[in-house]
Amino acid sequence: MEKPLKISDLVEATGLSKTTIHYYTRENLLSEPIKTARTMSYYTQKHIAELEEIIRLKEAGYPLSFIKKMTVDARKKKTEPSGDGDEEERIRENIIEKATESFATIGYHATELYDVARSAGVDPQIIYLYFPDKQKLFEECLSETFKKVFKEVWEEIKDEENPFKRIYQSGLFILTCYRNSVDLIHEIDHLAKIDEDFSAMRKEFIESLSMLLKSNLLKAYELGLMEEYDMDLICHYVIGIAEGGCRLLEMDTRYSPEDYLQAVMGIFELAASENVYAAIQELKRDEAPETESTDSI
Fold first, then answer.
1. Which end of the chain is flanked by fewer CB atoms within 10 Å, N or C?
2. Domains of the chain in sequence order
3. Which tens digits make up the pLDDT trace of 178-196?
4. Distance CA 106, CA 126 (A)
5. pLDDT digits (tens, 9 = 90+) for 121-155
6. How far is residue 288's CA from residue 290's CA, in Å, rounded to a whole number?
């Protein structure tokens, strides 16, 4: 039988303070402990694993709001009963998928809930059982898309230690595998100019991107690949360049995502020490196509 753990055991195992662990529990980032009295709680190895995952994601630059959504959703899937609940979740996911395609393709204002329902194969009134209006549906599409993007980007880069390669691989993965996310960003930009609610969404998303980028830039500084600069300023600058570049890729088919990202990576040379040039050149060599040696002919 597994030995119950006290909060002091969690502190020792993870290095987190009691205050932080209590905070994660209140915010539903950590599963509820087993309470035997008003002031007595016990934990298990599962709680240590959850805390270690939170630490890992935070170190990778993910915001707590994103980590919370990931953990809550994962917990729901484990506890949801089979049967009607599964069918309702399938319908909801299908509506979000079809709505995301529509928002990304023709835009927010041109998307009609009736058309989304028809595409999803459900009665139009069914949508309102899940989403009260089009804005709530759009918000959920954004949340689900970027949650999936961040999760899969992490899987793509988690074993890469070079911070510049991590940035490159993240960008390439998004541009080649998640074009919908780029199109949704463009739509948020447009909507943010006319609606404060969308402006807040855009700000939260940009802040999440900045945190991911900043964590890698700080790692580059620790490794001696960059001089000490205002990393927040560099993040804003690079994200601005990236947003413009996404539109460039749509308008000018001469350039591939790889071409564009190589140019973006060159920006870091402006804020880097001499060592970064060698790191970027190594990245370019790694991404260059292999040519057959004349010795083998």
1. N
2. 7-59 (1.10.1660.10), 74-287 (1.10.357.10)
3. 666 667 777 877 787 777 7
4. 22
5. 988 888 888 888 898 899 888 888 877 777 787 78
6. 6
**297 pLDDT higher than 90:** no
**How far, in Å, are 4, 11, 26, 54, 71 from residue 16 at the CA level?**
18, 5, 15, 11, 18
Q: Which residues contact 205 (CB under 8 A, 6 or more apart)?
A: 142, 146, 185, 188
Tokens 């992490």 identify what position?
154
Q: Which are the contacts of 180, defined by CB distance < 8 A and separation ≥ 6? A: 100, 101, 104, 145
pLDDT at 296 over 70: no
Amino acid occupying residue 214: K
Query: 0.85 cut: is pTM over it?
Result: no
User: 211-247 pLDDT, tens per residue?
Assistant: 888 888 888 888 888 777 788 888 887 777 777 777 7
Dihedral angle sign, alpha carbons of residues 235, 237, 241, 243: positive
